[in-house]
């Protein structure tokens, strides 16, 4: 992937340098400048980044891009929800209509976003983060993302979850299935779950 010499005679780096000199950040709308649609091609007809994600990300970084608009406008899977909503699958509708996740997002009392946290004292730092926590009027929530291409066991310590405090026992409620997991956990306990590739889990921790 190289800059178009007619459009960018000084390269993308030259554009980035000029914008940064003004004290501004450079946002790259990839469908216009180059490929970076998550599919096989962009809406403008340029090749997409599917299969070239790592090398393209490195290229954008070398160009001095501060923010990337990464589209998915031509994928046949429809998960961008830009297609006819009447044609969404039942699985997609279940995600969009999940009342528990919507309640966290629109909580009228606390209404703060989930933030990354260190899952255990010895856990490595990942980029992007894989563990998030946030509070709502229902309690404390833990969200876990498996960013890898294989099944992974994810573990967090209750003592590391922001806002839980230093005492008490907790039950785990699965926000995807709407069911409570068996057992109770103390603040000094850990919890492990097997997460499918690119999948997520969403828990509400309820004081027992």
UniProtKB/TrEMBL annotation:
Residues in Alpha galactosidase C-terminal domain copies: 128-205
EC top class named in words: hydrolase
GO biological process: carbohydrate metabolic process
Record InterPro entries: Aldolase_TIM, GH, Glyco_hydro_27, Glyco_hydro_b, Melibiase_C
Source superkingdom: Eukaryota
Record's catalysed reaction(s): Hydrolysis of terminal, non-reducing alpha-D-galactose residues in alpha-D-galactosides, including galactose oligosaccharides, galactomannans and galactolipids
Family, similarity comment: Belongs to the glycosyl hydrolase 27 family.
Protein name: alpha-galactosidase
């Amino acid at each position: 992937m190289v800059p178009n010499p007619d459009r960018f005679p000084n390269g993308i780096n030259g554009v980035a340098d000029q914008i940064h000199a003004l004290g501004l950040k450079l946002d790259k709308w990839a469908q216009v400048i180059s490929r970076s649609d998550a599919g096989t091609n962009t809406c403008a007809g340029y090749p997409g980044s599917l299969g070239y994600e790592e090398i393209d990300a490195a290229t954008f970084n070398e160009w001095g891009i501060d923010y990337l608009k990464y589209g998915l406008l031509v994928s046949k899977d429809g998960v961008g929800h830009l297609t006819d909503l009447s044609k969404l699958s039942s699985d997609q509708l279940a995600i969009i209509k999940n009342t528990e996740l919507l309640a966290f997002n629109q909580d009228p009392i606390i209404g703060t976003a989930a933030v990354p946290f260190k899952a255990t004292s010895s856990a490595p730092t990942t980029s992007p983060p894989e563990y998030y926590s946030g509070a709502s009027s229902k309690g404390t929530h833990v969200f876990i993302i498996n960013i890898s291409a294989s099944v992974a066991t994810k573990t967090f310590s209750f003592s590391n979850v922001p806002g839980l405090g230093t005492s008490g026992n907790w039950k785990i409620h699965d926000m995807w299935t709407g069911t409570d997991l068996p057992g109770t956990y103390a603040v000094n306990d850990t919890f492990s779950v097997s997460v499918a590739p690119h999948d997520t889990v969403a828990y509400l921790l309820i004081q027992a």
